[in-house]
C-alpha cells in the first residue's frame, strides 16, 4: 500500500507508517454547547510522542458520558484548564476515553508494547516522575492523575491517539474491534469499586446490591460479582430492563419505581415524615430479601446515583458492610442517618476509575470470556456527535455505543497488514 500524508477513515495505513496528518472529531471553545454542534471533523497534525508514550491507530472508539461535559464546556472548560496548567497548549480538544487499536509507534523508554501489538486502552494517566508514583503508591491518589480523552487531549475520537504505554493492554482475540472498545472505562471502574477496597471485596455468596444495573457501570458490576461467586441483585427503573440484567447473571432485580422514598431523607426531628421514609427503606430491603430467598442484607452496595439513593443504600447495607460510590448522577448532597452508620459499623467509600493492576485484572476477565462487553450499537465516525447527543438527551440504547474509526467495517476481529 502507498504511503500517504493522510488516510481516509476506515483505511488502515501500512503497519508502523505514521502520516503527518489525521482526521479527528474536534471540540473548540467557540463551538461549546450541545454535542451535535460542538464536535466537527477536522484535519490535525498527528501528535509527537514523549519517551513513555505510544501512538495507537484507533480501530474503534467507545462513547462515554464524559465527553458530553467536554462538549458543553461545563462544569469544566477542559481546553482552558490544560492551557492554565501548561500541560497542553492546544486550542482544541480531541476526546474519547475507550479504544481498541494497533500500536504504530513507541517512545524510547517504552518496553511493554511494540509496533503491531493489538491493544485496548484504559483511561488512567499519571506522571511517572511524581514522588508518590515513584514510591509505588497507588497513582489514583496522585495529583497528576488524569482521565485520558477527557482531562487530557488526543483521545480516541481520531485516527491516532497518544497514550502512556502502560495504558495499553492486550486486546481479547475473540472480540471484534467494536466489542473490544466497549467495556474498559466502566468495567475497570466497577472492578476497583468491587475488588479494590479490602476487606470489602466480593467473596463467594456475598449479596451485592447494584444500582442502575442495566447501565454501563451496572452491567459490568453484575458480571464481576458473578465471576467472583457473589450474588448480584440489581435495581432498575423499568421492568423491561430486568431480562437484560438476568441474562448477565443477576439473581433478580428490584424496580425502584415501585417505591417513592427517594431523595434527601427528611429531618429526624420530623417524626411523621421520617417514619414514612424508614417504612420505604424497609419495604425496599424486603424486596432484596425476597430475591435472595432469605433475610440477608447486601454486604456491598454499588452506588452512583448519589443524592436520590444514598440514604437508602446506607440503610439496607449489612452490619459491617460497605457502600462504595463513584458518582452523584442525581445530585451531590448525600444525607445519611449516622446512627445506622456508626451503630452497625458500615463503611461509606469513595472510588474513582482504577490503577494499572485493577484495569489489567478486569481486562483478564474480558480475555477469559467472563465479561460480555455489552455492545449496544456500532456507529460511523461521523456519528460521534450524535452518539453524545443521545447520551445528553437520555435516549441512548442499553449497553455501550461504539464508533468505528480505522476498522473498515463491523465484525472484524483483526486485520491483515
Ligand atoms: N468516577 C468514575 O471513575 C466513573 C466511571 C464511570 C462512570 N462514572 C459516572 O457514573 C454514572 C453512571 O455511569 P453509567 O455509565 O453507568 O451511566 P448509565 O449507563 O447512564 O447508567 C446510569 C443508570 O442510573 C440509573 N438511574 C438514573 N436515575 C436514577 C435515579 N434517580 N435513581 C437510581 N438510579 C437511577 C439508570 O437506571 P434505571 O433508570 O434503570 O434505574 C441508569 O441506567 C455517571 O454519572 C458517570 O459519569 C464515574
Give a description of the structure.
This protein has 417 residues and is of the alpha/beta class. The chain has two domains: 21-183 and 373-404, Quinone Oxidoreductase, Chain A, domain 1, CATH 3.90.180.10; 187-350, Rossmann fold (3-Layer(aba) Sandwich), CATH 3.40.50.720. It is 27% helix and 20% strand. The chain is built from 13 helices and 17 strands. It has helices at 35-38, 66-72, 78-85, 131-134, 177-180, 184-195, 216-227, 242-248, 271-292, 310-316, 338-343, 356-367, 384-392, and strands at residues 21-27, 39-45, 53-62, 98-106, 118-121, 124-125, 146-147, 160-164, 168-170, 207-210, 231-236, 252-255, 300-303, 322-325, 347-350, 375-379, 400-404. The strands form four sheets. Strands 3, 4, 5, 8, 9, 16 and 17 form a seven-stranded mixed beta sheet that branches. Strands 12-11-10-13-14-15 form a six-stranded parallel beta sheet, with helices on both faces. Strand 14 (322-325), helix 11 and strand 15 form a beta-alpha-beta unit. Helix 6 (184-195) packs across helix 7 and helix 6 (184-195) packs across helix 12. It is elongated and about 75 Å long. The N and C termini lie close together (10 Å). The model has no long low-confidence stretch (mean pLDDT 97). Bound molecules: NADP nicotinamide-adenine-dinucleotide phosphate (NAP). The site of NADP nicotinamide-adenine-dinucleotide phosphate has 27 residues, from helix 6, helix 7 and strand 11. NADP nicotinamide-adenine-dinucleotide phosphate (NAP) binds at residues 65, 185-186, 189, 211-212, 214-218, 235-238, 241, 256, 304-305, 308-309, 326-327, 329-330, 352-353.
